[in-house]
């Protein structure tokens, strides 16, 4: 996210009211790049998860190298708790209507992922993207997404991934300095997941 802004998020995974996820992120352009920080937290009767992070991207929208440092706290109903660190790196760039990005998430962890993605904007109000996700200790997958601005203040969002097979659809309203997004994602065996985000920019 380039520019100055703040986002509040809510995620209800698979319709499970006991596993609600809340999030907060804020970022701002700074000399030579962009910096931000935030937190995601999950509350469950038997498990709690907190992900605090700070990030910095050196460069601009045309070419940037980014790094994120996470501090993750996990607590269990048994009284046990664990604190750990995680790191992500990314390199992305864009030229005219084309874009590409490399991401390495949770470096050195069991659930590490490497994302290779590309995007294309064929029309002024339409953008498509695709990605290959490599998981050293899991199943690889393909992902795709599309955004279409159907009106001045309304954008339709859609996504798909291959493993597991999931589809997503959403709508974003941009009335001015703020925006609100609502989306759902399917799962082959579980209930729908719901997402709500409210963002402000200045």
Description:
This protein has a single domain (5-201), classed as Porin. The chain is built from no helices and 14 strands. The protein has strands at 5-12, 20-30, 33-44, 47-59, 63-76, 81-95, 98-105, 113-123, 126-134, 141-151, 154-162, 165-173, 178-185, 193-201. A 14-stranded antiparallel β-barrel has the order 1-2-3-4-5-6-7-8-9-10-11-12-13-14. It is globular and about 55 Å long. The two termini are 12 Å apart. 2% of the residues are buried.
Please write the CATH class name: Mainly Beta
| Distance separating the two termini | 12 Å
The percent range for helix content is: under 10%
The fraction of residues assigned to DSSP E strands is over 45%
Any guess at the CATH architecture? Beta Barrel
> Number of folding domains?
1
Task: Count every beta strand, where a strand is a DSSP E run of 2 or more residues.
Answer: 14
The run of helices and strands is EEEEEEEEEEEEEE
Gyration radius, in Å: 18 Å
The main sheet comes to:
14 strands, antiparallel, barrel
> What is the helix tally?
0
Uncertain parts: none
Strand order of the largest sheet: 1-2-3-4-5-6-7-8-9-10-11-12-13-14
Output the CATH homologous superfamily. Porin
**What is the mean predicted local confidence, pLDDT?**
96
Instruction: Provide the structure class.
Output: mainly beta
Stated plainly, the CATH topology is called: Porin
Can you tell me the overall shape?
globular
């Amino acid at each position: 996210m380039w520019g100055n802004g703040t986002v509040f998020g809510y995620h209800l995974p698979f319709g499970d009211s006991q596993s609600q996820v809340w999030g907060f992120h804020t970022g701002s352009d700074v000399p030579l790049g962009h910096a931000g920080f935030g937190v995601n937290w999950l509350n469950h009767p038997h498990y709690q998860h907190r992900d605090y992070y700070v990030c910095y991207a050196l460069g601009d929208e045309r070419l940037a190298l980014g790094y994120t440092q996470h501090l993750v706290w996990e607590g269990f109903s048994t009284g046990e708790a664990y604190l750990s660190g995680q790191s992500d790196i990314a390199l992305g760039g864009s030229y005219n209507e084309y874009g590409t990005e490399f991401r390495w998430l949770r470096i050195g962890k069991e659930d590490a992922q490497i994302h290779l993605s590309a995007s294309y904007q064929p029309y002024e109000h339409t953008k498509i993207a695709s990605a290959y996700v490599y998981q050293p200790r899991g199943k690889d997958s393909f992902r795709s997404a599309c955004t279409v601005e159907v009106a001045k203040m309304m954008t339709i969002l859609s996504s798909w991934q291959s493993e597991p097979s999931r589809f997503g659809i959403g709508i974003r309203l941009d009335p001015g300095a703020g925006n609100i997004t609502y989306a759902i994602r399917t799962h082959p065996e579980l209930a729908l997941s719901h997402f709500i985000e409210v963002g402000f920019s200045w």
